[in-house]
Amino acid sequence: MENVKKTAPELECDHCGTTSELTPILTYVHQGEEKHVCTHCLPMLIHG
User: Please, are residues 45 and 37 in contact by the beta-carbon 8 Å criterion?
Assistant: First the structure.
Protein backbone atom coordinates (compact mmCIF):
# COMPACT_ATOMS: atom_id res chain seq x y z
CA MET A 1 0.00 0.00 0.00
CA GLU A 2 1.29 3.42 -0.93
CA ASN A 3 1.68 6.10 1.75
CA VAL A 4 -0.36 9.09 0.66
CA LYS A 5 -0.28 12.25 2.77
CA LYS A 6 -3.70 13.83 3.08
CA THR A 7 -3.68 17.59 2.80
CA ALA A 8 -6.24 19.72 4.59
CA PRO A 9 -7.41 23.00 3.13
CA GLU A 10 -5.64 26.02 4.61
CA LEU A 11 -8.02 27.77 6.98
CA GLU A 12 -7.94 31.40 8.10
CA CYS A 13 -9.06 32.86 11.43
CA ASP A 14 -12.15 35.05 10.96
CA HIS A 15 -10.95 37.40 13.72
CA CYS A 16 -7.24 38.06 13.07
CA GLY A 17 -6.62 36.50 9.65
CA THR A 18 -3.81 34.13 10.67
CA THR A 19 -3.64 30.86 8.76
CA SER A 20 -3.54 27.22 9.78
CA GLU A 21 0.08 27.14 8.63
CA LEU A 22 1.00 29.41 11.57
CA THR A 23 -1.37 28.38 14.38
CA PRO A 24 -4.09 25.77 14.97
CA ILE A 25 -7.51 26.79 13.64
CA LEU A 26 -10.78 25.55 15.14
CA THR A 27 -14.06 25.38 13.24
CA TYR A 28 -17.39 26.19 14.91
CA VAL A 29 -20.97 26.87 13.83
CA HIS A 30 -22.83 30.00 14.96
CA GLN A 31 -26.36 30.81 13.78
CA GLY A 32 -26.05 28.10 11.12
CA GLU A 33 -22.86 29.55 9.64
CA GLU A 34 -19.49 27.74 9.76
CA LYS A 35 -16.72 29.97 11.13
CA HIS A 36 -13.04 29.59 12.01
CA VAL A 37 -11.02 30.87 14.99
CA CYS A 38 -7.36 30.41 15.93
CA THR A 39 -6.27 29.32 19.39
CA HIS A 40 -5.00 32.85 20.07
CA CYS A 41 -8.43 34.44 19.46
CA LEU A 42 -10.45 31.64 21.13
CA PRO A 43 -10.41 33.20 24.67
CA MET A 44 -11.78 36.45 23.23
CA LEU A 45 -14.60 34.49 21.58
CA ILE A 46 -15.40 32.63 24.82
CA HIS A 47 -15.18 35.59 27.23
CA GLY A 48 -16.43 38.35 24.94
Answer: yes
